[in-house]
């Protein structure tokens, strides 16, 4: 059962431990905001690079895939490397490497240089998700604020996705794209310096390792697999819906400005969903929260097909809240299904699966849309999302099993 004091994770900790928790959370949130912001910045830069270097759409896709593909591919390796060289060094080094990559991209003279720079950036970014999230969950003992802290960490990533591309959009009105990209490289270097200053000299998990191990010592391979599949389906439906939404709105008469506003409403709701649903999951439990958010998401996705444009625009913030909120609940369960020594590997596996599912979804569902039409494809997404309900029951059963054994 979640304690009432979990809402304020620092209040019952001794001053030294509270300081470690606070600094670790700020460090993780800062890393997430900067890394996710630099990752989504590529969407702003791709049209500029296409005009600058005369790239085809296939080459544009190659550039986008180079960053995200490298990031997804090396997350498991990053978790293993952290055991040898330390989480702090790997996270700071990865952030530094991402900053250097953007400095190189700012000097690129063609496709090859851009491709190498983005692969380097993806390699650096691969350290962030598994290491920062496991640092948060280790520092905040399970049941004492870990789930709430992870929801704040996830919220920070969405803030970065909003602020960094918007900042570059403003910079592009006064300076060249090369100067803008180079400044973002300097932002990455500054973030690495901030992490070096914030993170404890020793691994932040050392303070709470003994306490958290008592909670999460019971590994559940079956539960973790069910959680991974739940996350993959949730991510795939989210990315599939984002692919179809502009076309769905166009069919209802929306113009370019209307589509931009709709996406903004969806993303704002999604950012707050990651924060609020993490807290909700800590209060009422993982399964109840997932059933609530996924059922609501499925219902609202179907509603988006039949509602007029005004109705869709009104309900998009609520849809974004449910659509994105589930992810925070799922991330918060990873520490409960993995022992302390395997936590980084579990987070890396989970992030790799969800990012991979999200990357494949537009291709798979795009073909479905070509064959059946947008309306039926979107409703198929809602039906697929309902598969997460029995899977979350399976995860909950794995979470409850250690308590029965202990009793």
UniProtKB/TrEMBL annotation:
Positions of transmembrane segments: 90-120, 177-198, 226-249, 255-277, 346-365, 371-395
- Does the keyword Protease feature in the UniProt annotation? no
* PROSITE patterns the UniProt entry points to: MFS
| Stretches assigned to the Major facilitator superfamily (MFS) profile domain | 24-400
Can the keyword Transmembrane helix be found in this entry's annotation?
yes
| Keywords tagged on the record | Membrane, Transmembrane, Transmembrane helix
> Which InterPro entries does the UniProt record give?
MFS, MFS_dom, MFS_trans_sf
Q: Which Pfam families match?
A: MFS_1
Protein name from the UniProt record? MFS transporter
Identify the species of origin.
Pseudomonas fungipugnans
Q: Taxonomic lineage of this organism?
A: Bacteria, Pseudomonadati, Pseudomonadota, Gammaproteobacteria, Pseudomonadales
């Amino acid at each position: 059962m979640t304690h009432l004091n979990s809402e304020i994770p620092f209040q019952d900790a001794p001053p030294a431990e509270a300081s470690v928790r606070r600094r670790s959370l700020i460090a993780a949130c800062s890393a997430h905001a900067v890394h996710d912001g630099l990752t989504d910045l590529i969407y702003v830069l791709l049209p500029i690079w296409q005009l600058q270097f005369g790239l085809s759409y296939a080459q544009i896709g190659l550039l986008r895939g180079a960053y995200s593909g490298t990031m997804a591919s090396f997350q498991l390796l990053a978790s293993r490397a952290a055991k040898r060289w330390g989480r702090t060094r790997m996270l700071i080094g990865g952030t530094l490497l991402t900053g250097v990559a953007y400095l190189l991209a700012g000097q690129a003279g063609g496709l090859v240089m851009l491709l190498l720079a983005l692969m380097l950036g993806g390699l650096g970014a691969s350290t962030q998700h598994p290491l920062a999230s496991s640092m948060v969950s280790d520092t905040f003992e399970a049941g004492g604020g870990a789930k709430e802290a992870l929801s704040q960490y996830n919220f920070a990533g969405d803030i970065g996705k909003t602020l960094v591309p918007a900042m570059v959009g403003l910079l592009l009105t006064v300076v060249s794209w090369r100067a803008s990209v180079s400044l973002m490289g300097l932002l990455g270097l500054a973030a690495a310096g901030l992490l070096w200053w914030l993170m404890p000299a020793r691994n932040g998990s050392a303070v709470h390792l003994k306490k958290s191990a008592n909670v999460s010592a019971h590994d559940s391979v079956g539960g973790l697999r069910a959680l991974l599949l739940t996350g993959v389906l949730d991510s795939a439906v989210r990315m599939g819906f984002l692919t179809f939404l502009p076309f769905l709105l166009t069919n209802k008469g929306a113009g370019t400005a209307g589509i931009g506003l709709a996406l903004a409403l969806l993303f704002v709701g999604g950012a707050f969903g990651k924060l609020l649903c993490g807290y909700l999951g800590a209060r009422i439990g993982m399964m109840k929260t997932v059933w609530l958010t996924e059922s609501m998401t499925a219902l609202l996705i179907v509603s988006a097909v039949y509602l007029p444009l005004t109705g869709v625009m009104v309900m998009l913030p609520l849809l974004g809240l449910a659509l994105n909120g589930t992810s925070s609940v799922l991330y918060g369960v990873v520490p409960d299904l993995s022992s302390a020594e395997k936590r980084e590997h579990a987070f890396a596996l989970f992030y790799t699966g969800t990012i991979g599912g999200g990357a494949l979804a537009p291709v798979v569902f795009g073909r479905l849309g070509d064959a059946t039409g947008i309306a039926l494809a979107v409703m198929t997404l809602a039906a697929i999302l309902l598969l997460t309900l029995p899977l979350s029951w399976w995860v909950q059963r794995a979470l409850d099993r250690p308590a029965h054994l202990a009793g």
